[in-house]
Amino acid sequence: MKFKTVKTAPIEGQMPGTSGLRKKTRVFMEPNYLENFIQATFDAIGGGAGKTFVVGGDGRYFNKDAIQVILKMAAGNGATKVIVGQNGILSTPAASHLIRLNKADGGFILSASHNPGGIDEDFGVKFNAANGGPASEALTAKVFEATTTISAFETIDTDDIDLSRIGTTSHGNMTIQVVDPVSDYQALMESLFDFDAIRALFVSGFTMRFDAMHAVTGPYGTAILENALGAPAGTVTNGIPLEDFGKGHPDPNPIWAKELMDVMTSDNAPDLGAASDGDGDRNMIVGRGAYVTPSDSLAILAANAHLAPAYAAGLAGIARSMPTSAAGDRVAQKLGIQAFETPTGWKFFGNLLDADKVTICGEESAGTGSNHVREKDGLWAVLLWLNILAVRKQSVSEIVADHWKTFGRDYYSRFDFEAVASDKANDMMQNLRGRLDGLTGKSFAGLTVVSADEFSYLDPVDGSVSNNQGLRITFEGDGRAVFRLSGTGTQGATVRLYLGQYSGQNGDINQDTQTALQNVRDAAFEISEMQATIGRVDPDVIT
Ligand code: G6P
Ligand code: ZN
User: Fold this and answer.
1) Cα 332 to Cα 535: distance, rounded to the nearest angstrom
2) What's the 199 CA to ligand 2 centre distance in angstroms?
3) The pLDDT of residue 185
4) Best substitution site from 298, 346, 374, 482 to test ligand 1's pocket, by max atoms within 8 Å of Cβ?
């Protein structure tokens, strides 16, 4: 083994977005592209010397190669130890857990989450800090800064490291511990939930289908749901992780998880349908014919969490991202605990969780999680639902209907306009931003604006401020429209329009979602002048 310093030069555009650096795979495969970003990360955290890291990814194309690069660079930067998932596999929540469990200094997670994988698709790298959570904005800014001045990276000259066998090996001054990707995570789940009650639920004939979408949760789902909890073989579908996710789009929503949705709306629908994304942090929950929106799922999980052992003592607080509906806030109010509203991005929950201000967090983008790790956690959400179903002995739709009866219903939908020319998307936002101040009191498509502003977040723990986090407009009658540009796309800009309409406490909870949202949607189109600015009002995806 020989230490090696390799000369390099800055590469443009290595600015991490909502969740790490995400680019086309071929971009990551360009000479020094990955190396520069990894070295910049080591530089931004004050070097790798003497440190322990966790490394793993969702198994997509280029995962294995990228891991070899990172392992060698960790050794080159003087790291003491790297813990890596067998064959380079770790789900994002499992990586977060391993960082915390082993008191590591941080971790590299290779994934572009729910984006398709393959040489012509997407790849990504994310650094998580010692708390197990995504790097703060301050740290990602430092990383970006370092990418603009980089002149060399450190690595070692050695053959590729065998990651197929569990165990510890030495590589000069660094040890590499290859671990089973599932076992520590499974033990954590067993410590949170009543596995006996869930086992009994399956024995009683309860049926479910968990769609792993050919992504990382296949082995986790099989080990936990089928082997540990006794769900019949075949409960986990698409359970073999593939480098291209079977050419699918591993995003658990009614559009991309259509195969599951079709089953759930058929005569043979099982009691519960669930799915997770590329790296295992997102979830979708659907009962017989009843899709549960992520915003509702957060609220329902929060309202019932005390039924699971880990949350029996109650919750400290509930946090949601700003575009997520206020359903969770209503639960917080009833429970007499605090509700927090953060910008989009799981990293913003980290401080609140670390400071014990919140126990449960969630986002409209199919993410829910708790203080057990510092990432959202797809299987965790599924297991909490199972635990609640096992205790309440009601169906998913009964639980949802009961929730709406108690709290009122937050009708909710997101419209995504993908691959919009960046300048046009920016113009639209800029144009709307410029008119926000004059909107209050005016009517659009028959709805009067009550407030209009651009969301800024003041972190109550460290006092940091994050500006430009979305344009939000509320209407008379408890309607809301939010405009944001996605921070996770890899092509042009994705405009997100989030629509919400509250039914009121004793209002109509049985409307069709898009019908209930029609007025807010029309008003949003009129206010934003979307047709004129981006030339579209027909979204690519509706969630
Ligand atoms: C990732 C992040 C989430 C975020 C989502 C959508 O999954 O982890 O925190 O909500 O992307 O982000 P975007 O910027 O594309 O709306
Ligand atoms: Zn993900």
Assistant:
1) 40
2) 28
3) 98
4) 346
pLDDT at 255: 87
Q: Is 191 a catalytic residue?
A: no
Please report which ligand is nearest the Cα atom of 488. 1
CB neighbourhood size of 526 (10 A): 15
Q: What DSSP letter does each residue of 125-189 carry, written as one string?
A: EEEE-TTSSBPPHHHHHHHHHHHTT--EEEEEE-PPPP-SS-EEEEETTEEEEEE-TTHHHHHHH
Residues 13-40 have a mean pLDDT of 94
pLDDT greater than 90 at residue 533: no
Question: How much is the pTM?
Answer: 0.94
Q: Write down the architecture of domain 2-180 according to CATH.
A: 3-Layer(aba) Sandwich (3.40)
Q: Residue 89 pairs with which residues in a beta bridge?
A: 57
Residue from 96, 283, 344 whose mutation best tests the ligand 1 pocket (most atoms within 8 A of CB): 344
Q: Among residues 113, 136, 413, 503, which one is catalytic?
A: 113
CATH code linked to domain 185-407: 3.40.120.10
* Distance (Å) of CA 213 to CA 13, 32, 38, 383: 31, 31, 29, 18
C-alpha to C-alpha distances, 200 to 227, 298, 389, 421, nearest whole angstrom: 14, 25, 11, 53
pLDDT of residue 37: 98
> Can you give the pLDDT at residue 123?
96
Q: In the chain, where are the structural domains located?
A: 2-180, 185-407, 410-542
Give me ligand 1 centre to Cα 19, in Å. 7
Q: Which amino acid is at 82?
A: V
Residue bearing tokens 């291209």: 244
